[in-house]
Amino acid sequence: MATTLHVTDITASAVACCAPLVKEPMTQVDAEKVATTLKALADPARLRLLSIVAASQDQEACVCDLIEPIGLSQPTVSHHLRVLTQAGFLSRSKRGTWAYYRLQPDALAAVTTLLSI
Amino acid sequence: MATTLHVTDITASAVACCAPLVKEPMTQVDAEKVATTLKALADPARLRLLSIVAASQDQEACVCDLIEPIGLSQPTVSHHLRVLTQAGFLSRSKRGTWAYYRLQPDALAAVTTLLSI
């Protein structure tokens, strides 16, 4: 069995920085971190990619199965997947020819905690 | 007592469109709506404004009290408040000279539902 390495960017915990934003005024430093993370989500193609990966078996999908449903070129899909991985929403592992992406639920949970009322 | 009218844009329910994104692949139409709403949040100044309003008494604040803590010009602050209002996160009411902004918790709740795992 091939050894696989799941890679998640160090920015994964970016939104784990802060108390819920309704609780106390957010600092500029925290707001910049959170805005960067939310920008990674705020794109139609990335939201669709994330939802397809999340709805897949084991919340993991091969990049080869993501291109057709999104209807964008492979470089464009790879770019969007890289943004989601750098923001911590996906991890990436290489097996043979293809890269596989897995949902990182903790990153979504950190965002929902931040926005909770 | 002056009559006040709270104005919330019709896009307020934009993110109430969809099931949690981890449950099923999101359609392009839904993804575009959600991306628009998330873009309204994905800005440091807007996150800070939202958190200041949310942490204020009755979750409401006068624009006159928002300019100094943010450290931006009044037109810039007003622009950011308009974006948040159009996205449904704040409502706006005019009393005398000043506009007051109030948190709309349902809009944040819709986002957390969408991102819930």
UniProtKB/TrEMBL annotation, chains A, B:
Keywords: DNA-binding, Transcription, Transcription regulation. Residues 26-117 form the HTH arsR-type domain. It comes from the Bacteria. PROSITE patterns: HTH_ARSR_1, HTH_ARSR_2. GO terms for molecular function: DNA binding; DNA-binding transcription factor activity. InterPro entries: ArsR-like_HTH (IPR011991), ArsR_HTH (IPR018334), HTH_ArsR_DNA-bd_dom (IPR001845), HTH_MetalResp_TranReg (IPR051081), WH-like_DNA-bd_sf (IPR036388), WH_DNA-bd_sf (IPR036390). The keyword Transcription applies. Pfam families: HTH_5. SUPFAM superfamilies: Winged helix' DNA-binding domain (SSF46785). PANTHER family: ARSENICAL RESISTANCE OPERON REPRESSOR, TRANSCRIPTIONAL REGULATOR, ARSR FAMILY. NCBIfam families: HTH_metalloreg. This is HTH-type transcriptional repressor AseR. It comes from Microbacterium laevaniformans. The gene is aseR.
